[in-house]
Amino acid sequence: MNIKRRERKNFSIPLNSMSDVAFLLLIFIMLVSLINYRREIKIEYPEAEMAQRTSAEKNLEIWIDRAGGVYLDGIPADTRTVENTLADTYREAPDTRLHIIADRDTPFEKIQGVLSILQLLQYRVVSFVVKNE
What we know:
5 strands, elongated, alpha/beta
């Protein structure tokens, strides 16, 4: 009985298009890394005579617009949500700095609501963000 053996075929991977794929992958990674995920509310910053720069790590931002709308890191929030988020943040990382960013035309009564929550929770690491001259 005569058994035929299959001939082995030489397989090769075409390398001509590998540089194109690597170039496209590099462009994709560069574009994705440039995306800014920070949500901001359009406000006019108040001015200050003297300002102190803080570190950008471990920050929680509360935005207050002219109408008194409160936003936590760019997401609309009510008083209960602000209180719960601040309590959870303080419990997990007490050294988290809280930045209050309010429009220059925001009535103080609107800011007082957030400040009363901070006073109730005894939150001590708070900064008011102002326009840098």
